[in-house]
Specification:
Shape of chain A: globular
Low-confidence stretches of chain A: 77-95
Order of helices and strands of chain A: HHHHHHHH
Number of helices of chain A: 8
Mean pLDDT of chain B: 82
Strand content of chain B: over 45%
Distance between the termini of chain B: 54 Å
Strand content of chain A: under 5%
Number of domains of chain A: 2
Largest sheet of chain A: none
CATH superfamily of the largest domain in chain A: RNA polymerase sigma factor, region 2, helix turn helix motif
Helix content of chain A: over 70%
CATH class of the largest domain in chain A: Mainly Alpha
Oligomer: heterodimer
Radius of gyration of chain A: 17 Å
Distance between the termini of chain A: 55 Å
Structural class of chain A: mainly alpha
Number of helices of chain B: 3
Number of strands of chain B: 47
Mean pLDDT of chain A: 80
CATH architecture of the largest domain in chain A: Orthogonal Bundle
Shape of chain B: globular
């Protein structure tokens, strides 16, 4: 286990928990799976021996681990099924307002666009920071942002005229 | 930024609030798992014949056993729900090997901790009837089953453990003895618990030191004894230079019981038990301890230590269940210490999966455990289940377990279990998924259950009746339960708070007789007078998102029409407050009930909002005292709101407590003691160290 006191861990937990939770929620759209994933990420952190040179290093690492954990989960048969459930429910009664509606489109974005959209719009990271987190070039981040944004725009206007 | 960008940004609001906010739980889970790799105790293959031990004289009979025969595990029927006792060391080793093989073949290394979210922390059950005494008592779940706590009142004296848990800082922890005199308070004495650090070895660039940190967690007063429970951690730290160090390895996480003379605080004796404490209770002169050790990949041999002398526990006494054998990753030890002139210790060990919630009443100890698992069936469907198990330990005569009870879903709080008049009533909640590969259809279901078991003529619990429909709407899960003699009230929640009244007069035919829907939910319910229920929980908006703290009074006098009395009292979030949290909802021992004067109180943590969305700058502790008036339109009103600046920057583990002696109230924190009269006018303040 990492050499860290419970108090120091608590500080790290509260500092990063909400960001990780928001990312996980954008993958699962349910509280329990998102909570489970965040818990898993922090366990991995406590079990890891990585040496983080700065707060940013740690933050980026946690986000990457979280995204990977989400992707692994949704690739499992069980999650494919759960997500199907969520898709169905999204098209019915659970959409209550515009926030819910747009979030449902974010949730349904292809994975490579979802990460950049969530980090950019929900977590207010800059293009430079996102490129460091996802370990891709800034140009690539911009491209994905643009495409993700266009998909959302198209979906929203499609639905309006349906 | 375009309007469209703003819309995307705002859609973050659709993210529901997380249910979990418990870093210490994660931390302890990882730590516990690491403990499994600790160097094992020297196994003497010794059998402590009865563990009948004389206090201070220290007498124990030890019988050595030798058994080297192999054991064929395949001879055991894993579908059998019956109990088995380990017959030999080889059987113990074989079960261990099978479990470790399963862990290593599993792709997912972590267990599901869902059932432990709330932990063994407390809530309602069979009538903890109103506290009519003018002296404070712990808010026990069961009458005559005393729960240990960080504060106890005995006559004019208050014993108090400031909840500052310092495991690594090398600082001492204390138990204070305070004398509560009329309108003032004086410190009479204290017990110091000092961590030790001894040199172990040295290599090229560093020195190794062994550390032992005894941290007092809670206590009892019994006759002339002060009985303190301590978490005791053993670890070796590697020091490089003067200040840099890190933990090299852990070698123990034990529970110690230290007994003192309550009058002069002199030390009498100590008992140390392997493992993490799940529950501790005092019933008459008998102290019950339920301890748990995670079983890792090294074969584990349990042990206890009496007055610094270590004794191994005979593993061939351990009970286990073939049905759960491959997932039994925890060894639970139940100890009964009889506090008589001749101290006697008895023990019982069971191997079960994920030991979690423990409920204790005068007749038994009920230990819960759970498994979540999935399977692909032959018809190309995929199923995901949650299943709980309750292990009833009879304590009437010898410690005895006869069978286990299987329940769908998870039992998430000890107040969800209640033993009453030969019946055991258990609430559970859960999720299940089915997925059909061919049709691509899936079924996602949440469910809430009330299951009743009855003791048969051989004193064995048998399934009797249940309610499996009508509790909760779609996606709703149980949030709180309170059992009274012949009825119970259950709160479920997703967006509103249906409060269900369940008539248990005929245990074979439990009936939901009424339900009440209001916003938010009660996380803890407490009986008040004959037919009222105080509900403490959270307020929520129309989408079910928590946005404040809420205290309500319910009238349960008409079983067909449970109703809200007047208006609820709410502390709502706003531009400055991000959220409110009351830990007493999770650990009801933190409530102060003075119901003979219609008063109750608890500590509220307020998270101050920062400029960033969904984050906070700091949190404050404020103690609230409330007055109940059933005839008022606002039956709950605030009579005291006292903010306390905590010493620690990380005061998550700290909380403020209030107790009373006669008509004087004492507000206790790690900083100081504040004294109030019965109109809650401040009289005096004394500093603690």
């Amino acid at each position: 286990m990492r050499n860290i006191s419970d108090k120091d861990f608590e500080e790290i937990y509260y500092k990063h928990k909400q960001t990780l939770y928001n990312i996980a929620y954008s993958y699962f759209k349910n509280v329990s799976d998102s909570d489970d994933t965040v818990q898993d990420v922090f366990m991995k952190y406590l079990n890891s021996n990585n040496d983080f040179k700065s707060d940013d290093d740690l933050k980026y690492w946690l986000i990457r681990v979280c995204i990977n954990a989400c992707i692994n989960e949704i690739k499992s048969t069980y999650k494919k099924k759960v997500m199907l459930d969520n898709d169905i429910s999204l098209n019915n009664d659970s959409i209550k307002n515009e926030d819910d509606e747009i979030f449902s489109y974010v949730y349904n974005l292809p994975l490579q666009y979802k990460d950049v959209i969530v980090l950019y719009y929900y977590e207010s990271y800059s293009v430079d920071e996102i490129s460091k987190i996802l370990k891709i070039s800034q140009a690539n981040v911009k491209k994905r942002l643009e495409r993700g944004r266009n998909i959302l725009k198209t979906k929203i206007s499609e639905d309006k005229y349906e | 930024m375009s309007e469209f960008d703003d819309k995307i940004r705002r859609s973050k609001n659709a993210i529901e609030e997380s249910n979990i906010n418990n870093p210490s739980f994660i931390y302890n889970q990882v730590k516990e798992k690491e403990m499994n790799y600790k160097p094992q105790l020297n196994f003497k293959r010794a059998l402590a014949s009865s563990l009948a031990i004389l206090l201070m004289i220290g007498f124990m009979t030890v019988v050595f056993i030798v058994n080297n025969r192999g054991f064929d595990l395949d001879s055991i029927d894993r579908n059998n729900l019956d109990i088995r006792t380990i017959s030999s060391i080889d059987e113990y080793q074989a079960i261990h090997n099978a479990r470790v093989a399963k862990i290593r073949s599993s792709a997912n290394g972590y267990y599901d901790e869902e059932a432990s979210e709330k932990g063994d922390t407390g809530a309602p059950g069979e009538a903890q009837i109103q506290n009519e005494s003018p002296v404070y008592e712990t808010n026990n779940q069961e009458k005559e089953v005393n729960e240990a706590d960080i504060v106890k009142v005995d006559g004019d004296y208050i014993y108090y453990i400031p909840a500052v848990f310092d495991y690594y800082g090398g600082k001492s922890n204390y138990v204070y003895k305070l004398k509560g005199q009329e309108k003032e308070c004086v410190i009479e004495g204290s017990i110091e618990f000092t961590p030790s650090k001894t040199f172990a070895s040295e290599d090229n660039d560093s020195k190794l030191y062994n550390h032992v940190t005894p941290v007092p967690r809670d206590m009892f007063i019994y006759n002339d004894y002060l009985i303190v429970r301590l978490d005791k951690r053993y670890y070796t730290a590697r020091y490089q230079g003067s200040s840099t160090y890190y933990v090299d390895h852990y070698s123990g996480y034990n529970t110690e019981i230290r007994i003192y003379n309550k009058n002069d605080l002199s030390f009498i004796n100590s008992y140390e038990f392997d493992g993490y404490n799940l529950a501790i209770r005092l019933i008459d002169d008998q102290l019950y301890l339920v301890n748990m050790v995670y079983l890792g990949t090294n074969l584990y041999y349990p042990a206890i230590c009496i007055d610094e002398e270590k004794y191994d526990i005979d593993v061939t006494k351990i009970k286990y269940f073939p049905y759960l054998m491959d997932d039994s990753n925890t060894l639970v030890s139940i100890y009964r210490i009889t506090l008589a002139d001749e101290i006697k210790i008895e023990d019982l060990e069971i191997m079960i999966p994920n030991a979690s919630i423990v409920y204790v009443d005068k007749s038994g100890i009920y230990i819960t455990s759970y498994r979540t698992y999935s399977e692909e069936k032959d018809d190309n469907t995929y199923h995901y289940y949650q299943e709980s198990y309750v292990f009833p330990i009879s304590i009437k005569e010898e410690l005895k377990i006869e069978n286990m009870l299987k329940i769908k879903g998870l039992v998430q709080d000890r107040y969800w279990i209640d033993a009453y008049d030969n019946y055991l009533r258990i609430a559970s909640t859960g999720r299940e998924y089915h997925y059909d590969y061919y049709s691509l259809r899936s079924y996602n279901n949440t469910f809430n259950l009330l299951t009743i078991f009855k003791k048969d003529e051989n004193d064995i619990w048998q399934y009797y009746a249940s309610i499996d429909e009508g509790l909760g709407e779609i996606n709703e899960q149980i949030k709180s339960v309170r059992f009274n003699d012949n009825y119970c009230t259950i709160v479920t929640f997703v967006q509103t708070d249906p409060l269900y009244y369940i008539d248990l007069t005929d245990p074979l035919n439990p009936i939901i007789t009424s339900e009440l829907k209001i916003s938010g939910y009660s996380g803890y319910q407490h009986p008040y007078k004959d037919n009222y229920i105080i509900g403490v929980g959270y307020e929520a908006d129309e989408r079910g998102r928590v946005n404040g703290l809420k205290i309500s009074l319910f009238d349960a006098s008409d079983k067909d029409n449970i109703k809200l009395v007047g208006n609820s009292l709410t502390l709502m979030t706003d531009d400055t407050v991000l959220s409110y949290h009351a830990n007493a909802i999770n650990d009801p021992r933190e409530f102060m009930f003075d119901l003979s004067r219609d008063i109750f109180g608890f500590d509220v943590v307020t998270y101050e909002r920062s400029t960033q969305a969904n984050s906070y700058t700091r949190y404050n502790h404020t103690y609230y005292v409330f007055k109940i008036d059933v005839d008022s339109d606002d039956p709950i009103s605030i009579v005291l709101k006292e903010e306390e600046k905590m010493k620690s920057n990380y005061s998550y583990y700290e909380n403020i407590r209030m107790v009373f002696i006669g008509s004087t109230y004492y507000l206790l924190s790690s900083n100081d003691v504040k004294v109030f009269d019965d109109s809650f006018t401040a009289l005096e303040k004394i500093e603690l160290n």
